[in-house]
Amino acid sequence: MALTFTDLVEVDLGRLSTAVTDWKNTVDGLKTQAENARKGMQAKSDAARWAGVNATVTREFVAKTAKETADLHTEANSIYQVLDDAHTELTSLQKQIRTAVQADAPGLGIRVEDIGDGKVRCFFPHVRGDTDERTQDQLDARQELEGRINGLLAHAAEIDASVARALRKSHGSDPHNAGHSAYESLNDAQAERALELAHKGDGMTDQELAELNRLIRFNGREKDGEFATEFYQGLGGPEKTLQFYAEMSIDGTDAQASKVRLDGVRDLQKNMGFALANATDPDTTHHLPASWGSDFRRLGTQEIGWQQGQWSKPYGYQVLGGLLRYGNYDARFINPIAEHITQLHKEDPYRFLNNKPMGSEDIYGFNPSGRLGTGNDPLNSVLEALGHSPEASEKFFTDPPTAYNEDGTVKKGGKAGFDTYLDLFTDKDFEWTVDTNDTNILADEDKTKTALGYGPEALGHALESATTGRPYDSDDTADAIRHTPERAQLVTDIVEKFGQDPGLIRHNENGDLDEESGPLYAMRGSLGDITAEYMGDFQSSLAGGGGQFTSFGEAARLNPEFAHRFLAEVGQDPDAYASITSAQQAYTANVVNDVINGDSDSAVSDAERLRNATRPGGIVAGIMSESRADAVLDYHTASDKEFNEAAAEKQKWADRLLGMGIDKAAERVPILGAPLEWASEDIQESIMKSIEKDSSDQAEGDATRTYHEGRSAVMDSARTAVGAATRNSNFTVDTINDLKNSAAYGADDGHTAGATMESAGDAS
Question: Which of 143, 243, 484, 568 makes a 20 to 30 Å CA pair with 599?
């Protein structure tokens, strides 16, 4: 019978705590008894000169009694350890679930209902007079809460099942023979079961695979790394790990596999990836030896087989790449692998593609997720790994390259042949591959273009991670992290690289224009996120410097000309445009707030300071208007609808940028719960209005491109910022209106300047 929501919420864990204490006392008592038996009775028996029947029967009885006493201690200790860990974990889960139900749910106006089978339903109860209409934010909050509670219940159920299984194995089936399976922790028991299932390979049933996934999911990411390390060691080493994952991923992505099986191996890919990151972190209490990294590099260029007489075998790096796509990896493990793979690709871009299968879906292979390719090219996979590993990616792009031999060993005295990996990947001669299994892919131009973008998009993710200090796809409410000198310098290098040669990221589908698309245009979404993160540095650059436009941490010193060209090209991507626009308005709101409410001994009037404060943001907005028009009207790479739809997904930058203004001295600023109320709601609404108004349709056939609606939108956003900053002030209504107008005029002036600068299409 499944553990229910009511079971977990109402169970008295104090009784389990009492049982833990009792078993601890039993363990201590049996330890004393076992030691006495060993040092006393058995020692005397062994030393005695037995004769006759006593030489066999009595001596054997004494030895057996001493052994059973020791076995009883072993069994009792195993039971105690398992119950103690279970009590700790269940207490934590119960506390979390009670908080969710008793605090979070009422605050959201949500009711939680136990629907049995270990699940709940969250819903908004009907209130008389209520229309029952809910905003998307409310619906998302309900879904998040329901998923969170059900996840906690699933974790508790897994612990319950693991404890029951461990107790059975500890006790055994013979009441007259103590001491069977011995566990030093609940993790030991869970790892034992996970390995028992894993050793079945593709012979696992769907239910067994689901159980394995639960075990790895709930235990593989624990901070001490105990379960993850035991699991990978139990698989038998690096080669056995690759064989197991290869066998399972092919089994689940085969054309004959059911959707349940495919979903199972997708979960396995993710869960094993997170666990591998945990197990290979040298700073965890329990971790794999460093030799695992060198073994993976050695196996990377070798064929890996898992069936007798197997004809087609993948290379180790193709298999490993599927696991690396998930998890935050330590630089000491992942960077040598990333460097080795990149250098192998530079030497021969098609080295790993000669054995790829053809005519299958892109989910077939070692990347069951199907995200950014099949996984035949491990370069895409390892760049995705860096995209999830901020500290590692920062070092990868900022440390000098290390040269590697074919077998993954360091090439003593060898040179990599390039100065930085940013230089290598942005070299026009660097060749990106088509990582797909589709038959005759080259005959389909659209599919080819899409597949050629997988690598550059993954590169963008890696650079985003390196420059922001967060995984590229981290939670919207993740902390804002101060910019280190290394990150800031990398941003400077990126802007200079693409500012000097914007054609690298240009996208053109209009056959009437001469410009060709650049090889890296697929990474513009990430470049937009980087721009949003460093909005203070961009505004400072466009303003000609000045203390008013501060950086969050170390400053990225951007050349104004490069910054403009970079913005003009990046802003043609709908996602990048939305990120930049959201960040621009949020950052400008911070600057406006500093002018009105900050400490200043300036003799210049607030009205004049506001004009200066909003002008750089207006320039950014003007460049974005021009970029959007270029994309829609000239290059035909996006529609206004796509620009508007992207806006809703990118509003995270508003809160993050507002949060950066709270405490500029803090290492991290937590977004969740931060005091953003002074501006957040108004700014969010203003962003959406601005983006919707900034339509390119109005410029169709209009050579002057005046963007009247876009100008009015950026002026309105400046007025909104002043309104938020003066909400609790002592200013008169007339003064506030004058300040609003001053801010609006500065923004308008900036927008005109930005929009009339050299157009995005001619930026090179």
Answer: 484
